[in-house]
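--- STAGE predict ---
source: upstream dedup step, 1 unique chain passed
mode: sequence only
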Amino acid sequence: MKDAIFQLHKGSVPLLISMPHNGVDIPEGIRNTMTDAGLSVADTDWYLDRLYAFARELGAYIIVPKYSRYVIDLNRSPDGENLYPGADSTELCPTSNFQRQPLYKVGLAPDEQEIQHRVTTYWQPYHQAVIDTLDVIREHHGCALLLEAHSICSQVPRFFEGQLPDFNFGTNQGQSCSQALHQLLEQLSFAPYSQVIDGRFKGGYITRAYANLEQYIETLQLELSQRTYMDEVLPGESSVTSGQDPLQVSQYNPEKAAQVMPQLQHLVVSLIDYVSQKSENLASNGRA
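--- STAGE serialize ---
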């Protein structure tokens, strides 16, 4: 059952990369209730598994879900709490997309019973796997680092004005990671790409829920602008039509991707070096 919900690549270093919005599948029973906008899964964090494929060779653990965030958003609290009070946000089981188009046919949006079914069936197994994997990593290395890998269209008027920076790091205002890791992020340069820490995105549910500095578990989120590796179709430039292949809405651009991937490699290598050194220090101090 778990294999049908997510794929977990087991690594050898103290880094877990989670991609909770990379899935694109929708179960048949849910597909029948959805509009064309829902079936397009247009708000997917497209191609992240492809962008981060290099991380396997570096020894990172990687977890990727099968199903779309339109089925259930794995980066939301199971009680539906809005992590950005006062700001617009999509729900645990979204009923509209980033352009405010309805995802469900009239009268067929998930009710509370259906939402709880999806929590049990899709949300809980993914999160249990994250918890278990972090425990395994910490048991072997004395510490663990979770990188929440996300991407988003560079312009989403529903949530923010103007254009996003290219690299958007979230550390829950420094609460999800050590001061040393925060300083490392501040020192890293991804030029010519723009970057910010705890700007519009401060880290979602997973980043906030699984940070435990007393247990040497640190977390951070990277929201990568899709303009860095895709030919974006920005809001208002096109609309989803019946039968349209969602991969045709915005296209992967190999030339752009080839330019940004070394920057992502630079980040991941830096994170692995940081957490591996921390593991060695804990071991030498008898804390591992």
